[in-house]
Amino acid sequence: MLHHALLDRGCDSSPLRAAAVPPGPGGCEGSELRRGPPGVRCQGIQPGGHPLPGDREHLRICPQEYTCCTTEMEDKLSQQSKLEFENLVEETSHFVRTTFVSRHKKFDEFFRELLENAEKSLNDMFVRTYGMLYMQNSEVFQDLFTELKRYYTGGNVNLEEMLNDFWARLLERMFQLINPQYHFSEDYLECVSKYTDQLKPFGDVPRKLKIQVTRAFIAARTFVQGLTVGREVANRVSKVSPTPGCIRALMKMLYCPYCRGLPTVRPCNNYCLNVMKGCLANQADLDTEWNLFIDAMLLVAERLEGPFNIESVMDPIDVKISEAIMNMQENSMQVSAKVFQGCGQPKPAPALRSARSAPENFNTRFRPYNPEERPTTAAGTSLDRLVTDIKEKLKLSKKVWSTLPYTICKDESVTAGTSNDEECWNGHSKARYLPEIMNDGLTNQINNPEVDVDITRPDTFIRQQIMALRVMTNKLKNAYNGNDVNFQDTSDESSGSGSGSGCMDDVCPTEFEFVTTEAPAVDPDRREVDSSAAQLGHSLLSGSLVCIRPGTTETVQIILGFWSDETAF
Q1: Secondary structure of 8-33 in HEC code, one letter for each residue
Q2: How far is CA 306 from the centre of its chain?
Q3: Is the dihedral angle over the CA atoms 528, 530, 535, 537 positive or is it negative?
């Protein structure tokens, strides 16, 4: 423990003592020291080990009577107490901080390389299969992956609209390839794309893939954002700045035994708990929202293992798109006839072009995809194993803020322990600590006997972290249900757009309802406005929240909106 090491050094080596007591002619011996009561020794804190008489110094924190300290030493030891406390909190919260830092890095690496691998796999397969035809139209597929990457990294991309646009563009290109005898104007091709939903030229692949991609990317992006928020909140909350009342209580607990000539007596366990509960009252109030946030992270993690597994969606995406192309070719005559009927008869192409026919390359089929062949990526493991690991770590991080006092005070280098409650420092002498232990949280410190706590003034910084967790929990709740919420900068002056995915077959998950518990002394920014407006078969929910800007931890006031399909989970 730091304070033991500091005060057990020789008198010449202690900067606190050197500044506090001028040396006498004998080096360590002070020129104005008197002996106190028999057996009281100022070991490691006063020259010669002799106490000062109580009427010589008017101490502000430690008991008067005979003392080993001066008022100047009290001030310096108070600053030392502050530093030790800050180090204790940072060390005690080390596990939760490193959990979010390391796991965020692993998941982010995994998802990014998964996208790179999927794009490379599709490109390699299509170059081998379609050759020049693919290379001449490769920007359609490149744009698809560019938008998927942009969405994952926080871009304002509507997944459903983006995927619809991909299939419409692919239909335009394919329609020209299967009808080389005709010339198609831009207006005609735009008319062709309008028949995508009606004719279903690619079979059921676009519908299924849209559901799978949308909910998988929503879950993946939101989960990584959750790891980012957890990392930032943990880092910030662990760097506490104790109040003057807390510093006073810490000094009294950690160093007054030395000033009283009791350097080997450590604080009573219950005494330590009351001091720490008073000093960490605001951090304890974070626990309610933190636990809800962890619960939401665990639920989205389960989705990543099951129906929202982005790895199982992206690995075979090249095969699925190729299957859609096959469907288009097999139905080419029916599709062309319907389009000609709706858009009119196109003009014949020049003779050279009309002599060509649809390439036989399109008849190539691919072997069935084997899910056991899923590769590992840069993170060194499959998504399933990554999720299993993070779930274990998340469970261990619950209640971390309310249990900080207990974790600190059970350290044998800090207190005398629970078994030695008679031979411990109780703030006044070596005896049992009698006051009751306070409950957790700010409002419960109104009668804390050790720390002066103003329960009417919650810590603004901690309240900001509570709000950041609430916003992230709301996003996780929507991701769990397959819905997306895109948070935008207010400078955009528009509400967020989002994506919702409908149920497919019998894999429609049960909708999750969050029940949140209001933390004490928090403003009412949490409420959501349940207004809705029907548009294009969707409903728009809107409300006002303080949110985290994508890619940062800055809190901004924004308008929150998300689309949820009427057939959504």
Answers
A1: CCCHHHCHHHHHHCCCCCCCCCCCCC
A2: 21
A3: positive
With both helix axes pointing from N to C terminus, report the angle between 244-254 and 71-92 in degrees, rounded to the nearest 10: 100
Residue 137: both structure tokens together: 């139209």
| Residues 325 and 208 occupy one common structural domain | yes
Are residues 273 and 413 both part of a single domain? Answer: yes
Q: How far is CA 531 from CA 28, 52, 374, 477, 545, in A?
A: 77, 72, 44, 18, 15
Asked whether residue 82 is domain-assigned, the answer is yes
Cβ neighbours of residue 362 under 8 Å, at least 6 residues apart? 130, 177, 325, 326, 329
State the pLDDT confidence band at 413, using cuts at 50, 70 and 90. confident
Among residues 240, 551, 532, the alpha carbon closest in space to that of 404 is found at 240
Residue 13: φ, ψ to 5°: -90, -10
Alpha-carbon distance 468 to 27, whole Å? Answer: 57
Per-residue pLDDT averaged across 121-147, rounded?
Answer: 94
The answer to the question of residue 564 being in a domain is: no
d(CA 308, CA 116): 19
Tell me the average pLDDT across 514-519. Answer: 38
Angle at CA of residue 199, ends 193 and 202, nearest 5°: 80
Choose between 419 and 347: higher pLDDT.
Answer: 347
Length of the chain: 569
Domain that holds residue 261: 2-92+241-279+400-445
Q: Report whether pLDDT(317) > 90.
A: yes
Q: What is the pLDDT of residues 190-208, one digit of tens each?
A: 898 888 888 889 999 999 9
pLDDT tens digit string along 352-373? 554 454 454 444 444 444 444 4
Look up tokens 């920007």; give the residue.
Answer: 139
Alpha-carbon gap, residue 401 to 93, rounded angstroms: 8
Residues 255/257/258/264 CA torsion (nearest 10 deg): -110
pTM value?
Answer: 0.73
Q: What is the mean pLDDT of the chain?
A: 75
What is the predicted pLDDT for the residue at 224?
96
3-state secondary structure of 298: helix
The predicted structure's pLDDT at residue 351? 62
Query: Helix, strand, or coil here: 289?
Result: helix
Residue 31 tokens, joined: 């020129």
Phi/psi of residue 10, nearest 5 degrees:
-65, 160
CB 214 within 8 A of CB 499: yes
- Do 323 and 185 fall within a single domain? yes
Question: Of all helices (H) and strands (E), which one includes residue 545?
Answer: strand 538-548
Looking at residue 486, what is its pLDDT? 62
Rounded CA separation 284/521 (Å)? 13
Domain tally, the chain: 2
Structure tokens at 560: 């929150």
CA-derived radius of gyration, the chain:
34
Cβ–Cβ under 8 Å, residues 426 and 271: yes
Report residue 489's pLDDT band, with 50, 70 and 90 as the boundaries: very low
361: number of CA atoms within 13 Å, CB side? 15
